[in-house]
Design brief:
This protein is α/β, with parallel strands linked by helices and 282 residues long. It is built from 6 helices and 8 strands, in the order βββαβααβαββαβα. An 8-stranded mixed beta sheet has the order 1-2-4-3-5-6-7-8, sandwiched between helices. Helix 3 crosses helix 4.
């Protein structure tokens, strides 16, 4: 993996936010609490890409670590924030970034749980993971998203007017909320994120969100999906909608998990890209 700040060489200011080191800040491998024994996850090569591990100033004593994948060469690209599941930054999230970068995007995955000091992907018991995740309050996460979009706008390789966000599981809820509170977000795609706490806030959406949900999801039921759909309609948020995959479980895009549904994952990915394109994130 190549850790660079700029393809044409580093400038002094790069070292305020970047850590150029052979050691990774992030877990190598797939989240041990969820990886299936027979998983065959997608692995996207780094050819033609620049992979960075950066530190984003966010007002905290220790800045926000993030994994970044982007196309090599000059020019400004549309950027997608990638928001992880409860397992933090591991190889699945890193590969999502590389998949997007291979399509011409800058992809940034902040480590929202870094303050705990716990290496979440290395934990095998979900009962140990959830308390750590719960320490990341909505206000704290919203602030980290805002810090990330501010950082993106200052990068020479990113177009700050074309920023989207996508997230999975825990990150799906972050997508809905970020589209409400961060005016720099132009569009969002939420993969099976919790809806119940956000239904009453549907009118706050500043950017259109596409929600991708599984009909067999035991944690997000039909009543929650119907309530959000009704709230979007009542608020006149015609650009936002929920698409249901009747035979999909929670985590149907996660190709390292037993819940992976290849057909629905591919369809959702195509819908995600179309949603970004339709809303100027391209």
């Amino acid at each position: 993996m190549t850790l660079l700040t700029r393809p044409e060489g580093s400038l002094p200011e790069d070292f305020h936010v970047s850590r150029r080191t052979a050691a990774s800040m992030f877990f190598v491998g797939y989240a041990l609490a969820a990886v299936a024994a027979d998983a065959a996850p997608i692995t996207t090569p780094t050819d033609g890409l620049v992979i960075e591990e950066v530190l984003i100033p966010n007002g905290a004593p220790k800045p926000l670590p993030a994994y970044v994948a982007r196309p090599k060469g000059r020019g400004r690209h549309a950027t997608i924030l990638v928001v992880n599941e409860v397992f933090g930054i591991h190889d699945y999230i890193k590969d999502i970034c590389r998949r997007l970068a291979a399509l011409g995007y800058v992809a940034v995955a902040p480590d929202f749980f870094y303050r705990s000091g716990v290496n979440l992907p290395a934990l095998t018991d979900i009962k140990q993971i959830i308390p750590v995740v719960q320490q990341a309050s909505a206000d704290q996460v919203d602030g980290d998203v805002r810090a990330t979009t501010n950082w993106i706008k200052a990068r020479p390789f990113a177009d700050g007017k074309r920023i989207g966000i996508t997230g999975f599981c825990w990150g799906g809820a972050v997508v809905w909320r970020s589209a409400m509170v961060d005016p720099d977000i132009r569009a969002g795609v939420a993969w099976y994120g919790q809806l119940k706490p956000l239904v009453a806030r549907a009118a706050e959406l500043k950017a259109p969100v596409l929600g991708l949900y599984g009909g067999l999801d035991q944690g997000i039921n039909q009543a929650d999906r119907d309530a959000m759909s009704a709230a979007l309609t009542a608020a006149g948020k015609t650009g936002s909608s929920i698409h249901l995959y009747p035979d999909a479980q929670h985590g149907f895009h996660a190709d390292y998990r037993a819940s992976y549904n290849e057909a629905d994952a591919k369809d959702g990915w195509a819908r995600m890209l179309a949603h970004f394109k339709a809303n100027g994130v391209i």
